[in-house]
């Protein structure tokens, strides 16, 4: 259950970071109203997952999956650049997350 909560918290990180980009420095109301509470909720869900997971592993997975998700969202939805090198490094983030899950399962 803790790992599922961690994935949910990382998905929320994708939501709030994307909304933060759309908020234009917190100057647009609706994206700001999404970004701020979802970011807090993401941290709350992470804290619940931390009851059963090592902090180093949980934090690394939370940040890694969030960063991966935001980068993919940037490419797919926001037209950010994509290159073979960028894809390799994004894949390495996933390898790290999978490796942490395997050793701290």
From TrEMBL:
Membrane topology note: Multi-pass membrane protein
TM region positions: 33-50, 57-79, 85-103
InterPro entries assigned: EmrE-like (IPR037185), Small_drug/metabolite_transptr (IPR000390), Small_multidrug_res (IPR045324)
Principal location listed in the UniProt entry: membrane
Keywords: Cell membrane, Membrane, Transmembrane, Transmembrane helix, Transport
Pfam family, one: Multi_Drug_Res
Family named by the database record: Belongs to the drug/metabolite transporter (DMT) superfamily. Small multidrug resistance (SMR) (TC 2.A.7.1) family.
Entry protein name: Multidrug efflux SMR transporter
PANTHER family for this protein: GUANIDINIUM EXPORTER, SMR FAMILY PROTON-DEPENDENT DRUG EFFLUX TRANSPORTER SUGE
Matches recorded under SUPFAM superfamilies: Multidrug resistance efflux transporter EmrE
Taxonomy, superkingdom: Bacteria
């Amino acid at each position: 259950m803790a790992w599922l909560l961690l994935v949910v918290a990382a998905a929320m990180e994708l939501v709030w970071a994307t909304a933060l980009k759309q908020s234009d420095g917190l100057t647009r109301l609706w994206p700001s109203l999404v970004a701020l509470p979802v970011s807090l909720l993401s941290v709350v869900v992470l804290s619940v997952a931390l009851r059963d997971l090592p902090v180093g592993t949980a934090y690394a997975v939370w940040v890694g999956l969030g960063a991966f998700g935001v980068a993919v969202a940037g490419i797919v939805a926001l037209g950010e650049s994509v290159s073979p090198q960028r894809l390799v490094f994004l894949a390495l983030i996933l390898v790290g997350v999978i490796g942490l899950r395997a050793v701290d399962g």
